[in-house]
Design brief:
The protein is an alpha/beta fold. The chain is built from 17 helices and eleven strands. Strands 1-3-2-4-6-5-10-11-9-7-8 form an eleven-stranded mixed beta sheet, sandwiched between helices. 56% of the residues are buried. Bound molecules: glutamine. The site of glutamine has 13 residues, from loops.
């Protein structure tokens, strides 16, 4: 096993045994970024000096015999909509091209306090709007396993970094699938925690009632490790859930007996490719053979989720993005008077962002509010009830993540409706505020990974991890995020 391919826990063991130092590991991964990232394009900014300084500090603490945090000296990356003190944070947009935040997001503070070196900031769709990372104002990110394909999005850079060995973990954000879908496309584990479990303080807002930060890792237990660091109450986020978060690693045990699994029939429809459906059903069958029970369930309002999501996401985004007016944040373009300056500044936004601002401003207009936004809010309640009813009978739901494996770069740009429709399996989870985890469950005819989604009840994050861990131990005991690719090298010549 190559050094850059280890899990967080494997690396920790080697660090503890002094087989390798964190400085050596961090240098190794930085070198890999230097060699590989010109092809993959996962990072927008690399913070080598900061990462090495944190690595050395972790080494020194270990040398002094201090009890260090489990993540001390284990380097990873941050999606570029998570603000970092003194380090440029762009959200993939020209508007924030040169914005250097004066503070750290709460999750960043916690990672730094744990002694985890931050390698840099990863590429993303502009303001997290998209599913392929192609709406980034700065560059393309390629799928590490097929350079002609998209890594998914909007957290495509974070997924590609973890998949390609350019970081042991990465954080992303998920508003309608932006952690789970790129995790599925790049063949790694990605988790969207329950809304309110992880602080959003310092996350550049897209749609505040849906946004949630979560981890990318190479296996399920690593996701629990990361969640342990970032979860928990934060007084700086008014939507942060009170109380202490549980220890997510302590809950992990591979036990299929007694596990009740539901397959929502609405997620196994003609829009989802046959090979994806088959792979998900096969995962359910494997758990069933090991002692779990599997039954079909129904989420009767699932078919309205996409429509409601795009209403709500656009309405909230258009409100949140009003602040990029050239006055308060980021870049200011010249103009003869204030309206001209604002117009010129807003012209920096890309077409996808503009489309959502226009749509969002329309649906939350005074006369249209009841017909669109309020109706979408009611659908949201109905969906939440659907899930609650399903969770009276089962512990977790098992569904596909995406209709297909990773699509070719360029395709989504041509067909906007197709891009929105492909979010069919992920958006309902955000509308209902639930935890969900995406992990590989098979390989498509094209050799690319197929994603599997575990969904749990609100604050059942430990339950989701536990079920996913059980499946991983059955099917991919060396870590789902690397076992499926069996010796595959990062594709650097497909362009
Ligand atoms: N693809 C979805 C969208 O474009 C999800 C985005 C996200 O989760 N940030 O809205």
């Amino acid at each position: 096993m190559e050094l850059h391919d280890l899990t967080v826990r494997e690396l920790r063991q080697r660090l503890a045994a002094k087989e390798v130092s964190s400085a050596e590991v961090t240098e190794h991964v930085l070198r890999r970024i230097e060699q590989l990232d010109p092809h993959v394009g996962a990072y927008l900014t690399v913070t080598a000096d900061q990462a090495l300084a944190a690595a050395k500090a972790a080494d020194e603490a270990r040398a002094r015999g201090e009890a260090v945090h489990p993540l001390a000296g284990v380097p990873g990356g941050l999606k570029d909509n998570i603000v970092t003190e003194g380090v440029r944070t762009t959200a993939g947009s020209r508007v924030l091209e040169n914005w250097t935040p004066p503070y750290d997001a709460t999750v960043v503070r916690r990672l730094k306090d744990a002694g985890a070196p931050v390698l840099g900031k990863t590429n993303m769709d502009e303001f997290a709007m998209g599913s392929s990372t192609e709406t980034s104002a700065f560059k393309k990110t390629r799928n590490p396993w097929d350079a002609g394909r998209a890594p998914g999005g909007s957290s495509g850079g974070s997924a590609a970094a973890v998949a390609a060995g350019m970081g042991y973990w990465a954080l992303g954000s998920d508003t309608g699938g932006s952690i789970r879908q790129p995790a599925a496309f790049c063949g790694v584990v990605g988790m969207k925690p329950t809304y309110g479990l992880v602080s959003r303080f310092g996350l550049i807002a897209m749609a505040s009632s849906l946004d949630q930060i979560g981890p990318f890792t190479r296996d399920v237990a690593d996701a629990a490790e990361l969640l342990n660091v970032i979860a928990g109450h934060d007084p700086k986020d008014s939507t942060s859930a009170p109380g202490r978060a549980p220890d997510f690693t302590a809950a992990l045990k591979a036990e299929a007996k007694g596990l009740r699994i539901g397959l929502p029939k609405e997620y196994f429809t003609e829009g989802i490719s046959a090979e994806v459906q088959a792979a998900v059903r096969q995962a359910a069958a494997e758990l069933e053979r090991a002692g779990a029970t599997v039954e079909e369930v129904s989420l009767p309002h699932a078919e309205y989720a996409l429509g409601a999501y795009y209403m709500i996401v656009s309405a909230e985004s258009s409100s949140n993005l009003g602040r990029y007016d050239g006055v308060r944040y980021g870049r200011r373009e010249a103009g003869a008077d204030v309206p001209a300056m604002m117009t010129a500044t807003r012209a920096l936004l890309g077409p996808e962002v503009k489309r959502r601002i226009v749509l969002g401003t329309f649906v939350r207009g005074k006369e249209r509010l009841p017909e669109y936004y309020m109706r979408a809010a009611r659908v949201r309640t109905l969906l939440r009830r659907d899930f609650e009813q399903a969770f009276e009978k089962v512990d977790v739901l098992l569904t596909p993540v995406t209709p297909t494996t990773a699509f070719p770069l360029g395709r989504r740009v041509r067909s906007q409706m197709e891009a929105y429709a492909a979010d069919i399996c992920t958006v309902a989870v955000n509308l209902a505020g639930l935890p969900a985890l995406s992990m590989p469950c098979g390989v498509g005819a094209d050799g690319l990974p197929i994603g599997l989604q575990f969904i749990g009840p609100a604050f059942g994050d430990a339950q989701v991890l536990q079920a996913a861990y059980t499946y991983e131990q059955l099917a991919w005991p060396e870590g789902a995020g690397r076992a499926w690719r069996a010796g595959k090298e990062v594709d650097v010549d497909g362009h």
